[in-house]
Amino acid sequence: MGKLYVEAKPSVDLNKNTEWFMYPGVWTTYIAILFVSWLLVLSVFGCTPGAAWTVVNLFHFAVTYHFFHWKKGTPFAEDQGIYNALTWWEQMDNGKQLTRNRKFLTAVPVVLYLIASHTTDYQQPMLILNTLAVFVLVVAKFPNMHKVRIFGINAGN
Amino acid sequence: MVRLPYTTALTTLFSYGLLFVFGQLRDFFRKLLGWIRKPKDQLKGYAPICLGLEDFYVRRLYLRIQDCFGRPIASAPDSWFDVVERYSNDNNKTLQRSEKTSRCLNLGSYNYLGFAAADEYCTPRVIQSLKEYSASTCSTRVEGGTTKLHVELEELVARFVGKEAAILFGMGYVTNSALIPCLIGKGGLIISDSLNHNSIVNGARGSGATVRVFQHNTPSHLEEVLREQIAEGQPRTHRPWKKIIVIVEGIYSMEGELCKLPEIIAVCKKYKAYTYLDEAHSIGAVGKSGRGVCELLGVDPADVDIMMGTFTKSFGSCGGYIAASKEIIQYLKYSCPAHLYATSMSPPAVQQVISAIKVILGEDGSSRGAQKLARIRENSNFFRSELHKMGFEVLGDNDSPVMPIMLYNPAKIPAFSRECLRQNVAVVTVAFPATPLLLARARICISASHTREDLIKALEVISKVGDLIGVKYFPAEPPKHLNQGHNKLE
């Protein structure tokens, strides 16, 4: 099997918290993690595939909301706190909206929602939870929500 | 431009994700336990000194492999030196020094010309100047700290580099970070290479000018950025920029690459921007007579407006210099805070540089300088070609004494470092934040004092370690490799 090589160009992004997202293989890793976690949930709980997708969807909602839209700043001190008021989503691509990476990250929760609701046959308790999750995630990623803090939630340092 | 196998990219991202998840879990439990236990002597009402998430990288990733960084040494950093052994009782959170040292081959020091240890021409003169002028001038340059040696060195540096005048500073990092604010301020534009050193980034940030970054070593992108910025002018007011400075380095210390200087100078001249060349790693190490990238690439030093360099790498001393036209140096002498308020360079250090430059130029009466330059070129090219043949991914151009070997996965960093140390070869591994997150590497610095036997031993050890941890990403001879694999399985 021939090895498949990719090129990693040094990116122009100075923010070391987000520049790792520009490298090859990130999208594939993201999707692979989602798929493998679905298999894990199936094997640990032994539930129906639909319930497993719902669990993955809700877990994905909790994790991505916390790390992309709640936590602000960067996990290292070298940049002297210039990004301390911005969440990871707002720091991405230096604040430029509607880039390829942002469109991909907006599409993933929608696709997950479609898979989860299809495999549960649109039954009630799961459907409302999935819908809530995708609604919150997609609205948080709108360009108009850049740097918006509703009712001042999460505005403090 | 680094090429890596796709599966390596996936596994590296996954490993960092896993490390991140474990770090967050540990932080979560620590917060939980802290909330439950609630220590008695808490300063009420005071703001925390550092935000909990700001040092996440240091606490959860760096401290795990802390023993690979900051190893104390117990002798001069010659081609062989003594590394102090350390041990830890609490899983690398704290390290204790032991009494034992091990003699290791030095592949990490910036000892390009071999001046780091005792030298037959330099050391007696340095000891003589220590007796005459003592260890410190105890004063700033403008008060009582300018000795005869300082003036002699400034003239010598200017002559060596090919500019009209030079000014010295006590520290290489400070030369950049305290000087760029002197040259440009608010209303100016700094365009710097995306992989520039932290000192330049700090200096640019501290100057108050607008900073733009162009893609590493790509003159076409530099031209694009220049055109866009000149057309737009200053942010918000759109007035023309007060001045534009383009900052590049001679050899990029993390890539080992040479700068594409002729093309970049041509672009800057076309758009009337000033150029600032940081030759920290290239002065004294490349070029036929050691005068740096300008000599190597055939660029006239008069075309570069400001040339900066340090004495720590090729000259075995400490400190930095700026060489430029007489007017700029005179201006700096009365406006740069590192000259006005900082203590001047220590006289023995100045004498070391004077003697080293004299040896390089051949003015000490022997041909040792030319021999050293030829030897470092031979050593670097030999080492790099051998590493390529073995299948490692080595960055850097020919003739450059800095060669990073790409590791990528975070687990391979401590594996490479510790295994090499066990076999008595000391290498420097570099991870985030000095390099991008996914491109961790082991950086090898070749010296003129390495003999052919030293290099062959180093190659053997690195090859064995590379096989063990699987960093030979470009296997050169597939059929032989397959046969060997079969034998190993049986």
TrEMBL record, chain A:
Entry annotated with the keyword Membrane: yes
A GO-annotated cellular component: endoplasmic reticulum membrane
TM region(s), chain numbering: 21-45, 51-68, 126-143
The organism's place on the tree of life at top rank: Eukaryota
Compartments (UniProt record): Membrane
Keywords (A to Z) from UniProt: Membrane, Transmembrane, Transmembrane helix
Pfam families, per database record: ORMDL
InterPro entries linked: ORMDL
Membrane topology recorded in Swiss-Prot or TrEMBL: Multi-pass membrane protein
The protein's name: ORM1-like protein 3
Species, as recorded: Rhynchospora tenuis
UniProtKB/TrEMBL annotation, chain B:
EC number(s) on file: 2.3.1.50
Topology class, membrane: Single-pass membrane protein
Transmembrane residue ranges: 6-25
Enzyme class: transferase
Any GO BP: sphingosine biosynthetic process
UniProt pathway annotation: Sphingolipid metabolism; Lipid metabolism; sphingolipid metabolism
Cofactors, names only: pyridoxal 5'-phosphate
Protein name: serine C-palmitoyltransferase
